[in-house]
Each structure stands twice: as C-alpha cells, then as structure tokens.
Sequence to fold (338 residues):
Amino acid sequence: MDFKAIIIAMKKAIVFAALIFTAAVVFAQEAIVEEKESRHGFSLLTDFAYYPYSAMVPAQGERFAPISGAFDSVQLGVTASYNYMIPLPGSNFLTKDNNLKLGAEFQISPATIKPRVFASWTPVAFFVLNAGFTAGTGWSVLGSQGLASYNTFSGKYDNLTPFANWYGEFSIGGTFQFDAAALWPGDWHHIVFLASYDFRLSGLTGQENGHPWCWAAEYAKVNGPWYYASIILGYQMPLKLSMAGLQAEFSGYFSDSQFSAKYKDFNGDFCNMLLSPFVVVSLTKNDNLFVLLTFERRRGFDSSKGYVNGREQNPLEMRSSGGEWYFKRIAIRYIHNF
Fold:
C-alpha cells in the first residue's frame, strides 16, 4: 500500500478543518445566544496522563507485571472540537432524535498535531454510524517520539522530518447504545451501555508495507487495516458525581502477515486490551471532569532482552508468548462546552 498519494488529501483535510474552526468561532458565539435549540457544538478538551513504569516479566502464558518504577512518562494534549447537527425527520420514540453530525477537531500535543474531520449518522435512537479521516505529523520532544521509523540496524526508531512525513487514518464503524431509563423512566434509572466497533486503515508516508514505525509514542505500527472496539457500562446519577463505570477496549491488526516475515515471532496480530474504571464529575453545566485508571494487557515475551550484533534486542526481534497485564496510567480529561 502506497501512502504517498494521501499527502494531498491530508493537506486538504487540514485546510478544511481550519475553515470549519474559523466558522466555529462565529457559530460558538451564536450557540451561546441560541443555546436552547442550537445545532452547533464547540468544545475544548484537555487530556493529561501519568504513566508509572512496569518492567517486562519474562514468562510463558498470562501473567501480571507489577509497578517497578515511579515514573515512565506523562502525556498532555489539547483538542478543539466543533460539530454541526442536522436534525432528520422522525416522529416515534426511536426516530424523533435522528440526526446527522458533521464536524472537525484539531489536537495538539508536545510531540504531534492531528487535525480530523468526521461525520456521524443516528438513524435510530440505539445506533450510530460514524466515519472520519485523520492526518497528523510529529517530532521528538524530551525523548517522546511523535513520528519515527524503525531502524533494523540499530534496533531503535529514527525520528522523521515533521511536515515532510505524515500519518493518515480512515475509520468507519458503528455504535450500539442503550439507556435503561428509556424503558424504566427515572432520574436514578440511567444504566448506560455502549458497544462500538471501528474498521481503521492507517499508514505513514514513505514506509514500506510490513516495516514498523511509531506514531504519537505508540510503537510497532505498520501500514494497513486494523480494528478498534470499545464496550462501556456506566451508571448515571443526578449528582455532581454524574457517572461511574467501566470501559473495555480492544485493538489489533487482522493478521500477523501485515508485518514483514522477519518479525514472525513478534505475534503481529496480538490483541491489546485495556480495562478502565472511570468516574465523571459534572463541575458545572458546561464543564465535566473524567478520571480513569487503566490496566492494559500488552504483548508478553518468554525471555529477557538479549543482544543482537552487539546491541540490545528490540521487542520486534523477540519471541512473543501470551499476554502481560500491568497498571498503565492515571488519566484525566477536562471538557468545556461553549
């Protein structure tokens, strides 16, 4: 798959996102005045995450890796988001809130920028179809790599030139959603369930198929299709502590053949899993604070790192064996809706 052809599309997406956000400034002001029936949504998200260090535990099968160091890294990002809602015809309880949403967002972190355009269609109350296109570029800041390519000789990732190299991603998927209060009315009856599945196609310009790269400090990525699924079970309350729940996330490549044959022992189609208990605090009508504790099932290996050609092995060169659970992060998200 050749991703050079999407550079032009990425640049157009950035221009389109910029135009939408220019309009969003005007629309956000209108939304404040016409808040009751506004079709415009404008929000600002701030994300912060703290990652302790958990060293790998060489073993076969499933295991748990305890925290072995107080600090591994931190992550910070700010995202401006705008969407425009178009109500669709509907008269019964399943279709009265039908709508089409068009939107754009722009995310910036210390090591990346990532504009995105998206659309979502709600044909019935319990189901949403969505699609989006993301472009991004990055650089290295204090050892955090935004955009890099694996060097098979050194066993490390070499930083790529920002704005000359691009990450691109297309996604399409659906979400099933249900609130028990729809059948059992009451302020204390909001048991919420959401299940979503996305097909995603992503790549990095200038990279051959099967060759690993890094985007936004996420390593061992390759060009091609992959999946992302999420399940959320929550209980919503008419309190400042407005929701508590659990999110499970699953992601991975469809086949280990998407990686070059030299990485056959790496188990390229391994399914990463995240389990995150969370709470939501409603600070004001327009301000919400999300707090998550995340545990991850990452790829495990049956031995410690050895040496290849006089240097330490990269995990890509090791033999994967089972999954390794560990405490990944404490994450906080603050959302302000204008």
Remarks:
- Residues 13-36 have pLDDT under 50 and may be disordered.
- The longest strand covers residues 69-87.
- Helices lie at 6-33.
- The CA atoms of residues 19 and 104 lie 10 Å apart.
